[in-house]
Design brief:
Radius of gyration: 16 Å
Helix content: 25-40%
Largest sheet: 2 strands, antiparallel
Distance between the termini: 32 Å
Number of helices: 6
Shape: globular
Order of helices and strands: HEEHHEHEHH
Strand content: 5-15%
Structural class: alpha+beta
Length: 194
């Protein structure tokens, strides 16, 4: 999507969802008194790091215990409020602010962690040619139910075929995809040794 469209969509979505975001933030805070937002360094366009924003859905310090950065269905580190937020994908709403700030787009490959990017092949690195998105081609074609390599291949296909029409198609399919699979095994579909 172009920058004006990103700002218009993200800005409007922030205004429309602000009551819901407020309720979710309050529930997160009351749930265990920890911070409302979870901030994590992700890799964006051209391999540049940025701070991704999410509503916190796991215990404080979760990435240092259990499966680390990987999250599985039924993960005991997920808070009670967090289970609801993840099921409805409400934890992703703060990323609208990442879009407004210009670090993300509404549509594009999901941003990944540096250790994952370091394992990309030159072909897979093509997914870094565009801004990461809140939703994308891989999200509407299987999300985390797909193996990691297939998701990356879908993202590269998007980079090579992106167009306003394809972005609209992805946006139209996103609501149904939200209620599809979110998890894929103990490592979220990522193979640490690959």
């Amino acid at each position: 999507m172009n920058r004006p469209a990103d700002i218009a969509i993200a800005g409007t979505a922030l205004v429309v969802t602000s009551p819901l975001l407020g309720i979710a933030a309050l529930a997160t805070k009351l749930g265990d008194r920890g911070p409302v937002l979870y901030r994590q360094t992700r890799v964006g366009k051209d391999g540049v790091d940025f701070e991704l924003l999410k509503l916190r859905t796991m215990i404080v310090g979760a990435e240092k215990v259990g499966a680390g950065f990987a999250v599985s269905e039924g993960d005991p580190r997920i808070t009670r409020v967090g289970r609801v937020l993840r099921k409805l994908s409400l934890d992703e709403l703060p990323q609208l602010w990442n879009v407004v700030r210009g670090e993300m787009s509404v549509v594009g490959p999901r941003p990944t962690l540096r250790y994952q990017v370091e394992r990309y092949t030159p072909h897979q690195r093509r997914r870094l040619e565009v801004k990461p998105g809140i939703t994308g081609w891989a999200q509407v074609n299987g999300r985390a139910t797909l193996p990691w390599d297939e998701r990356i291949e879908l993202d590269v296909w998007y980079v090579e075929h992106r167009s306003p029409w394809l972005d609209l198609k992805i946006l139209a399919k996103t609501p149904l995809a939200l209620f599809g699979g979110t998890y894929k095994g103990a490592r979220g579909g990522w193979k640490a040794d690959s």
